[in-house]
């Protein structure tokens, strides 16, 4: 059998390339177009309708529970090359390392009967009330102070107006206007959404 002429081969290749590119172009879905449910206002109205409870249950059906810290840690376990006793021991060591770091079972603090927040634990849970920005870190400290001063300038009733209305509570005063107005889709993170 004789080889195909170069013109036929080039034409077939070009046709296959055009067909492939058109399939890729048709298959590409534009995700920049927001759906109705991406609107906070539409979702809020939908939730306040009589069938909202059923809709909420259907939406939540697809949500999964957040994994526990330990299961998230175990997902980080390096993939083992085999299912031998050595791999099982490595998995056990990985879990014990997490529990030791967290101050749980297997740590010296837990074995001694001390609380997990004792000084012998590597990781200690801390209240957010105890967290402060380093005074030497001028930029973040100044930003935090600016945020605080801005929030103290705002009227509390106007600030929480949207939240109260969403909860069905009496909303005193008037909401903030402008881009944070109650009818605007995009609001600032201080005022919240409805």
Write structural notes for this entry.
Residues 131-192 form the Non-reducing end beta-L-arabinofuranosidase-like GH127 catalytic domain. It comes from Triticum turgidum subsp. durum. The chain has 9 helices and no strands. The protein has helices at 6-27, 40-47, 52-61, 69-75, 85-102, 108-111, 138-153, 156-159, 161-167. The protein is extended and about 90 Å long. Residues 106-111 have low confidence and may be disordered. With 194 residues, the protein is mainly alpha-helical.
Rg measurement, Å: 29 Å
Q: Can you give the helix content as a percent range?
A: 40-55%
Q: Topology as H/E string?
A: HHHHHHHHH
Query: What is the total tally of β strands?
Result: 0
Quaternary structure type: single chain
Uncertain regions spanning at least 5 consecutive residues: 106-111
Give average pLDDT, whole number: 69
- Find the structural class using helix and strand composition: mainly alpha
Principal-axis shape: extended
What's the number of helices? 9
- Could you give the distance between the termini? 73 Å
- State which percent range the strand residues make up: under 5%
Outline the biggest β-sheet.
none
Secondary structure layout plus pairing:
Layout lengths: L5 H22 L12 H8 L4 H10 L7 H7 L9 H18 L5 H4 L26 H16 L2 H4 L1 H7 L27
Features:
mainly alpha; 9 helices; Non-reducing end beta-L-arabinofuranosidase-like GH127 catalytic domain-containing protein; Beta-AFase-like_GH127_cat; signal
Summarize the structure.
The protein is mostly helical and 194 residues long. The protein has helices at 6-27, 40-47, 52-61, 69-75, 85-102, 108-111, 138-153, 156-159, 161-167. Among the domains are: 69-131, no CATH class; 138-194, no CATH class.
């Amino acid at each position: 059998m004789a080889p195909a002429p170069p013109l036929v081969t080039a034409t077939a290749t070009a046709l296959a390339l055009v067909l492939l590119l058109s399939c890729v172009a048709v298959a590409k879905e534009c995700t920049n177009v927001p759906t109705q449910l991406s609107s906070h206002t539409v979702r809020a109205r939908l939730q306040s309708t009589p069938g909202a409870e059923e809709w909420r249950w259907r939406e939540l059906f697809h949500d999964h529970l957040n994994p526990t810290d330990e299961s998230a840690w175990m997902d980080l376990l390096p993939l083992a090359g085999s299912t031998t006793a050595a791999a099982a021991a490595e998995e056990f060591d990985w879990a014990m390392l997490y529990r030791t770091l967290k101050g749980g079972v297997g740590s010296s603090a837990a074995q001694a009967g001390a609380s997990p927040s004792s000084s012998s634990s590597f990781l200690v849970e801390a209240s957010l009330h105890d967290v402060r920005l380093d005074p030497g870190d001028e930029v973040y400290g100044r930003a935090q102070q600016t945020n605080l001063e801005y929030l103290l300038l705002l009227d509390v009733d106007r600030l929480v107006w949207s939240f109260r209305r969403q909860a069905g509570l009496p909303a005193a005063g008037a909401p903030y206007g402008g881009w944070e107005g109650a009818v605007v889709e995009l609001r600032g993170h201080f005022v919240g959404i409805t």
